[in-house]
Hints:
The protein is mostly helical. The chain has helices at about 1-15, 40-45, 45-70, 75-85, 90-100, 105-120, 130-145, 150-160, 160-170, 175-195, 210-230, 235-245, 250-260, 265-280, 290-305, 310-315, 320-330, 335-355.
Amino acid sequence: MARSRRVLCLVAAVAAVLHASWTFVPGPLRRQAVPLAASAAVLAPLPAFADGVDAAAKKLADVSYPMVKAVDWATTDVLDKYMAKVPTTMEFSKAILDLSVSLDPKLVKDAVAAHKKAVDAMGPDFVTPLKNHEEVTVALAKMFAAAPKDKIKAVFDATPSVKELNAAWYAQMPKADADATFVAFKELAEAVKAAPVAQVAPVAAPSMDGPIGMAAKKLADASYPMIKSLDWAGTGVLDKYVAKTPATKESIAAFLDAGLAMDPKLIQGATQAHLDALKEVDGKLVTSLKGHEEVTVAIAKLIASAPPATIKKVFDTVPNIQGLNADWFATMPMTDAIKSYQAFLETATAVAAAKR
């Protein structure tokens, strides 16, 4: 989804912490990061890793805060232009999902909670106080520090034109701030590289049984003709919506609240379902019917794991969602759209019934 791509692009930028070669800022700082000696990773006690990541992340937050304040986070023009010009690739989607299923669920939840606190504290310019920026940066650093380093590097390597994206991002910042941020970023990279990897037990995609599973499978079958008609590498309706619709504090907070309320295992399972579906995609990033069914069931069960009021608030706060839906369905054959809508209502009823 296009809105998701904004988040994924930011994740890709963070993933660059672990990449050996940097091109974030121009000039003399464009050089390779110094690798840590393997002996240091073996000999240092575990608490030292945590302290090192915490301290380095806090320093990065403090140094980067002037740049954070300089960005219009309601529109993030650089990312919007990037998404409009650069299509999603299967390699990028796979790398993001492969990393996601390997992240420690507790650390992911901690990072989401830190973001929620930061959103609650931010002003009309979408800039949060320094304390909250520090908490978010530390939470993200811990999350990535515990992840497999090769999978984070794979995200960076698979992100289309990531060097150009980063160059454009930093080009709009004062050079002194960009240079200082780069140095702090490199120090954090060294701490992250040295940190031990958390072992995360795999979670399979949810089964299709039960009322929710059966209703969601019916929705998947009814909507599949519409799914096949789209080029998911460049979903024009959604890309235009993202480019023209600024984010709101209310919608961001609602999304984060929903994420915090969902079952972590079902989040992992839904991510795994997407990863499995990618194995069968065609040139337009359309998966098989079976893959679409598994993804739809996983999402339905995931949504059902959160309180109905929390999910409803997401829909209520998304800006101009009725216009988005109208534009979206206008591109579809009317018969397919009606069948999909009817199946959607049945799925919604099954989800609501599960909460009673």
